TrEMBL record:
Species for this entry: Rehmannia glutinosa
Name by which UniProt lists this protein: L-ascorbate oxidase
InterPro entries (alphabetical): Cu-oxidase_2nd (IPR001117), Cu-oxidase_C (IPR011706), Cu-oxidase_fam (IPR045087), Cupredoxin (IPR008972)
Keyword rRNA processing: no
Gene3D superfamilies membership: Cupredoxins - blue copper proteins (2.60.40.420)
Length: 317
């Protein structure tokens, strides 16, 4: 399989016999039909789970006949530690194709994200705990719950202080074993270059997604993150993408420029976890309040919650 695209980015076209695809991720491969006419197996199986599920498809040549002749492809290592190491190495082999994917209007290959100064580092630690006898998941000790008034609507009308409190999630995790259940929104500065560290201190693999932005997935390693780990980052051709996996007792680092004004969701891509609180919102406000940076609310927008009878805010210009 020749990898040609990963979450909307062109990649260096490496060839793989097996590819790990984590929850919420997508990629595109090319397969060249250069074998003798016959039928061949294509195998998909679950990874990093106690019970392994496998399904087969058959690639059938035009003149192929009978049962598939080939034996089943060899799976990745079954030993958990070797399997995770194998998967991490595959992640490191994914590279941005700088001749096809660079930011416009810059000349192709000239977007050097590795030379931008980091203005903020946010360490995100996922956690789980019982709250009033019920299981909840959270981020840095906060388990998100939706409010009656949509968060962005409250912010747009200038009454966010009546709906939620900014920055309950701190940039450095403290006691992640106890969870506070509340709407979770952090304040971010427009156009800051932010480093987000995802730390997984649990025994199960995690996958994270950030709405509204792509980010550069620069590193995944076992253990705990420290600032010294930055020397291991890929600062040249990390793939620009929207999701990142974090292996058990490991960490992952991404970098992004917060240049898209709005309120964006950072969440676990495991549905159970995001539904039970492992998510938060990132509020990115433009100080100009200008149509250059963000649209006005559509006139057909439904209004609800505490803003239902409030006058419409002055439009951006």
């Amino acid at each position: 399989m020749k990898l040609v695209e990963l979450e909307g980015s062109h990649t260096v076209q490496n060839v793989y016999d097996s590819l790990d695809l984590h929850v919420g991720q997508c990629l595109s491969v090319l397969v060249t039909a250069d074998q003798k006419p016959s039928n061949y197996y294509f195998v998909v199986s679950s990874r990093f789970s106690k019970q392994v599920f496998t399904t087969l498809a058959v690639l059938s040549y035009k003149d192929g006949f009978g049962h598939a002749e080939s034996t089943l492809p060899s799976p990745p290592p079954e030993n958990e530690q070797k399997s995770i190491a194998w998967s991490m190495n595959q992640f490191r082999s994914f590279r941005w194709n700088l001749t096809a994917s660079a930011a416009r209007p810059n000349p192709q290959g000239s977007y050097h994200y590795g030379k931008i100064n980091i203005t903020r580092t946010i360490r995100v630690v996922n956690s789980r705990a019982q709250v009033n006898g019920k299981l909840r998941f959270g981020i840095n000790g906060v388990s998100h719950v939706d409010s009656e008034t949509p968060l962005k609507l409250a912010e747009y009308y200038g009454v966010s202080n009546k709906v939620f409190t900014y920055d309950l999630v701190k940039d450095e995790p403290a006691n992640v074993d106890k969870l506070v259940v509340a709407p979770s929104v952090i304040n971010a500065t427009f156009r800051n270059f932010v480093e987000i560290i995802f730390e997984n201190r649990e025994k199960t693999i995690q996958t994270w997604h950030l709405d509204g932005y792509s980010f550069f997935a620069v590193a995944i390693e076992p253990g705990r993150w420290t600032p010294e780990k930055r020397k291991n980052y890929n600062l040249l051709d990390a793939v620009s993408r929207h999701t990142i996996q974090v292996y058990p007792n490991s960490w992952a680092a991404v970098m992004t420029t917060l240049d898209n004004a709005g309120m964006w969701n950072l969440r676990s891509d495991m549905l159970e976890r995001s539904y039970l609180g492992q998510q938060m919102y990132v509020s990115v406000l433009s100080p100009e309040l200008s149509l250059r940076d963000e649209y006005n609310m559509p006139p057909t927008q439904q209004i609800c919650g505490i803003v239902q009878n409030l006058p419409m805010p002055a439009p951006y210009s």
